[in-house]
Write a structure and sequence with these properties.
With 351 residues, this protein is of the alpha+beta class. It has helices at 6-13, 20-37, 45-63, 77-86, 129-133, 138-143, 145-149, 151-163, 171-174, 189-193, 199-224, 231-234, 238-251, 315-322; strands at 94-98, 104-108, 117-122, 127-128, 252-256, 263-267, 275-276, 283-286, 291-295, 305-308, 341-343, 348-350. The chain has 14 helices and 12 strands. Helix 2 (20-37) crosses helix 11 and helix 8 packs across helix 13. The longest helix is centred in the middle third of the chain and has 26 residues, at 199-224. The protein starts with 5 loop residues before the first helix and ends with a strand.
């Protein structure tokens, strides 16, 4: 009969070569997750959250050894810089560097004046929903009701699809991204429990439930829809989807579409290395030049970090979507949910 190659063996053994037994269990677990996560929040939200997490952890255990390999981003910064230069990006005013508590960021390599344009990134280098529609997952992006309603999810799947393609145009950029994030999607149950008493705990659990529902839904789509082609059909692990979603949440921006008639989600390479500070928006999109332009918020001395303003967000919003809190946040506030009670002789109503 001859020897079978790795791809043939993987096809016979099931998705990613997991084997029929493991694959059957994963399918069963994802069916349970999709059902549980599609239900409205109940009065036992914490117990539901713990149960959902236990099922997800079992899926992760079964998929261990089959997730995408980790990449040391530092090893790819030189390649990333070369890609930027070859694509026409002038990075002479800044460079990537470790910045202490804020991780990696951009340092000024020369003095930069307030409102001076220090960075331009052309559209062709951005990962956008428009590019996703033209990719191998385009037919799904154009027809799936969730992807049409939630373009940031389409962008996450597109990013993951490109990460699986070693010949992707965006490979130098993707390899420069963090291998994991500090978003609540990576929190342990004990860490989520520490948020008890804060309104953000409910938001964290709600977010986790939504992402798990998305994963279970698309896992089913990739396994059952014969029209779906590409690497995501062969390999779609929870850890990889969590990474892709966290990348989009922490780094996405809105830019005009090519026609300029509406806004679309995009990842902007290199620009997204900038860390946050108080201020005002200093990034714009030049329609005529078809590129993003970033202006300095203030005067920046050589060797100092160049910051941008992420927008008017509370610390709870920053934690939920970016994985950090900003102690000097001028716009921090606390959301308090109030209930109104009505008493009568027989009943107590809560509105």
């Amino acid at each position: 009969m001859g020897r079978k190659n790795r791809k043939d063996r993987a096809s016979n053994d099931g998705e990613m070569g997991l084997g029929k037994k493991k694959l059957k269990e994963i399918l069963s677990l994802n069916t349970q997750l999709l059902e549980m996560c599609s239900k409205p929040s109940s009065s036992v939200e914490w117990q539901d959250f713990v149960h959902i997490r236990s099922l997800v952890e079992r899926v992760r255990e079964l998929q261990k050894g089959h997730v995408l390999p980790k990449v040391q981003r530092e090893d790819h910064f030189v390649e990333f810089d070369k890609w930027l230069t070859e694509s026409g990006v002038d990075t002479s005013k800044t460079s990537i560097a470790k910045t202490g508590d804020t991780g990696y960021g951009l340092l000024a390599t020369q003095d930069i004046q307030e409102l001076e344009i220090f960075l331009r990134i052309p559209r062709k280098m951005m990962l956008t929903v428009e590019a996703a529609r033209q990719s191998i997952i385009g037919p799904l992006v154009k027809t799936d009701s969730i992807l049409k309603a939630m373009p940031h999810v389409a962008l996450a799947l597109f990013l993951l699809n490109e990460k699986m393609n070693p010949d992707s145009y965006w490979a130098p950029y993707i390899n420069s991204l963090p291998e994991k994030y500090s978003t609540p999607l990576y929190f342990t149950s004990d860490e989520v429990q520490l948020l008890k008493g804060s309104p953000v705990q409910g938001n964290v659990m709600y977010q986790y439930k939504n992402i798990v529902r998305q994963y279970a839904y698309f896992y089913k789509v990739f396994q059952t829809n014969p029209a779906v082609v590409g690497p995501l059909k062969e390999q779609f692990c929870f850890d990889d989807y969590r990474w892709a979603v966290s990348t989009i949440m922490t780094r996405q921006n809105e830019i005009p579409t090519g026609q300029g008639d509406q806004m679309t989600s995009a990842l902007i390479p290199y620009w997204d290395m900038c860390n946050h500070t108080n201020g005002t928006f200093s990034t714009d999109f030049n329609i005529e030049a078809d590129c993003s332009e970033c202006y300095a918020l203030n005067n920046v001395n050589k060797a100092d970090q160049v910051f941008i303003y992420y927008g008017p967000r509370t610390n709870s919003q920053l934690l939920l979507n970016s994985g950090f809190v900003y102690p000097e946040n001028n716009l921090d506030s606390l959301e308090i949910k109030l209930g109104t009670f009505f008493h009568c002789k027989t009943f107590m109503f809560r509105f």
